[in-house]
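Hallway conversation turned thread

IA: we were arguing at lunch whether anyone had actually written out Farnesyl diphosphate synthase end to end. Turns out nobody had. So, for the record, here is the sequence (294 residues) and right after it the structure tokens. Reply here if something looks off.
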Amino acid sequence: MSNLLNSFIQTNQPLIEETLLGLIKDIKAPQPLKDAMLYSLQAGGKRIRPLYTLAVLKELDYQNEDALIVASTIEMIHTYSLIHDDLPAMDNDDLRRGKPTNHIVFGEALAILAGDALVTIAFGIIARLQNISPQLKVDLIEKLSFSAGAEGMVGGQVLDMLGEGQTLTLEQLEEIHVNKTGALLSYSILAGAIIANVPGEIMSALKKYASHIGLAFQIQDDILDVEGTSEQLGKTAGKDLKSEKNTYPSILTIEGAKKELQNQYNQAFQALENVQMHNGLLVEFANYITKRSK
């Protein structure tokens, strides 16, 4: 990790953690529900999505005091998806971020409701922001709904589930991951651009960058599932193989997956180069994503 990216993360990650805690601790909800929500929110994690929102604004040299709140709502949506992913009816996992999964600690019913609470509160938080115009708030909410819902992450999860035990084509696998992983990650990048109200050329470049980096993120996840350990990953390694899931290594081989990872990185870099944004944080994030070990 470069000094530039490391410094950015060291500065902003604690602010994200503080914001997440502040947004949940004072809500009027039963304490067991708040405990379950905070358990998964505070279980650690790289915070890639909220950091990406803040990185885009940093690159654009645009400041908005509500940006941290918007970024934190993306982490709430991501955390809800992980809680539900780990449930017995879905991936049936007992380890997440190196800790017992939410339903292991709190039971299935409360884990489901904690996920429900995180996803619904996120939209209300954005709606109540004071320092973003009404039109831009509507844009943020509409695109978050699309990215997290049936036409994005949830739809991708269903396609992933339906593909288990079948042999998919590379195009079918890409469709799964453009939605399951890429949609919310892409939103986190575009959210920064929406807040800054960037011109069309910049938005188009960031959309292209986001689509390629979203796939790169998933390809590296698939590679790590094969090459990493449970201790490194903070979750059960080899889970995809045991579940007979289609992955980039299973379709392309591990070497083919690594070549495709580089291809996606190259295209993401090209998108930034076209608008002279190829010397800063977004490239450093792309390097980190494609070289990370967990």
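OS: looked through it. The longest strand covers residues 95-96.
IA: good, adding that to the notes. Strands lie at 95-96, 99-100.
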